[in-house]
Amino acid sequence: MKTDKAARLFRIPHGTREGSVGMEINPALAITKPDSSITEPCKLTPIEAPQVACVAVIGERNSQLFLKIYLDALVDLPYHQSQGPEVKMEEVLYSTLDIFDDYIDGSSRKTIYLGRMATVASIRLYGLLTVTNLKLIVGVRSITESDAYMKNMLIKIYRLTVKSLLNPFQPIDLMIHSRKLETGIEELVGEFPNHKPVSGPNK
Amino acid sequence: MAVAGLKGKRQRVKEAAGALSMSKGGNMQKLGELALQKGERVPVELLALTYGSLVRQVIADYESIEEVNKQLDLMGYNIGVRLADDFFAKSGVSDCRSFQDSAEIVAKVGFKMYLNVQASVDLWNADNTAYSILFDENPLAEFTELPEEYAQLSFSNLVCGVIRGALEMLLLVVKCEFVRSTLQGNEMNEIRISLVEMLRESAPEDDED
Fold first, then answer.
1. What pTM does this model have?
2. According to the lineage, what is the superkingdom (chain B) (predicted)?
3. Domains of chain B (ranges, CATH numbers)
């Protein structure tokens, strides 16, 4: 099992993102100094933690369509005492929306793979922005997966989302309730190399 | 092939049933496939989305789910009475007047031609007045997942109406309903068709006074 060498609690994420436009890292994602109220979550060591930390689909108006956080993967994610690590993960996810917004400027474009948008603790967030401004984000711990793999994974998630939106009973721009989508994403995550959920997904 | 006229009806049905996989059923299958090839194709998304939109509108217009099911059946009925002629024109099936014959025709030819669905006939009752059509894929509900509050909704009830309407054009009044559906968690879809009565062709009224 490979460990993320830099998986320290208070790591400052620095900016280069392979395969994407050179953009400044969102300062909201940087953790600058130790805070006494930050506690270490989960009992798993980084070695044992599952690889996929979260999968999120966010709608055009930034409404949450689908969110699945794998609590056990948030091993070294620092969080404030009053919240839990999953809340922090959600915050981090939402802060990446700014990165998406930079690409939304009214001009015509194709679906854009944003590559690695940001890194928080040892979790890397990869994004896909579709033509219809649907935003798909996957957070992984692994440092070995290639960009092509992540792009492929995001596109598969996109296809699953589209199918669930074709359900006539699924309202647009609201949370997606679809067993097929959940099962589909579970399978995709299960296929991710070295992803071994210990206690199952959180949400 | 047995000489139909000389044997009893029960015997004839038994032989037909036995020969299904060999000639009659296989023949029906081929007719279905040929008719499908000749027809125009439509993307399944268009069909599924149109139908889904229709169902949602009916739900919005009526209060109870039972009423919705009834309306879908009624819509189907109006389609079926028109579809019967189209069916005979395109499929090459010769005129069918017996309830037993209708089973294979609906399942093997009709379903294949109009829905591109492989369906089978089974579960005949003791006196051959009811049978089931079984199929596992349903293009109308390709992307559909029923929310809990619509668990009693017979989503594809339109199909039942179509069958009812079409068979009525053949003077067979039937009751047609979904007894199992994949949307409601079953592994297969099953439509039960039961004969209510056979209409007699009425002689045209005398025009003379």
1. 0.73
2. Eukaryota
3. 3-20+27-198 (3.30.1380.20)
